[in-house]
Amino acid sequence: MPEVRLIGDDGTQIGIVSTQKALEIAQSKGLDLVEVAPGVKPPVCKIMDFGKFSYEQSKKAKIAKKKQHTIHLKEMRFRPKTEEHDYRFKLKHIIEFLNQGNKVKVIVVYRGRELVHKELGVKILDRIVADLADYGQPESEARMEGRNLSIIFLAKKTARKPD
Asked: What is the pTM of this model?
């Protein structure tokens, strides 16, 4: 007859007993016999209320899920000829996103013959990198993706409020 290492409902070691005897002890207390560690010799079983145990596990998982923060990738688009007011407005939103702990992808979109003047987009991205030095840092260098020049910013751990 197979044997198991039995742990009581109060956490005390009962010892190595037959599976049948372990089941009888659990039933006499009105509880369940739960296999806790099946991979060891002999397997470890515990006497417990399985319904209560699974309820507590799901509750712990819910609390852990509630506390975790997901990072989203936000996107902000610029054009090579973006005016000062629009630049400031978009920069303010980028700072908000970074303060919330999100990543921000800044894209400079070229249309038509604007692609000839890539340096205008590079100039905008350099200015953004300088303006966001207190709030976030670039994940990598700016790169061309088709007609778009893009860069991704990560939030700094100690981001400050916008001016």
From this structure: 0.58
The amino acid sitting at 117 is H
Phi, psi of 65 (to 5 degrees): -70, -35
> Which tens digit of pLDDT belongs to each residue from 121-149?
999 999 999 999 999 999 888 899 999 99
CATH number assigned to the domain comprising residue 9: 3.10.20.80
Q: Are 143 and 113 in contact (CB under 8 A)?
A: no
Half-sphere exposure of 151 (CA within 13 A, CB side): 22
The domain total for the chain is 2
Assess whether 101 and 119 both reside in one domain.
yes
Decide if 46 contacts 34 (C-beta within 8 A): yes
Within 26-141, strands assigned E span 32-37, 44-48, 73-78, 103-109, 136-138
- Tell me whether residue 160 is in a domain: no
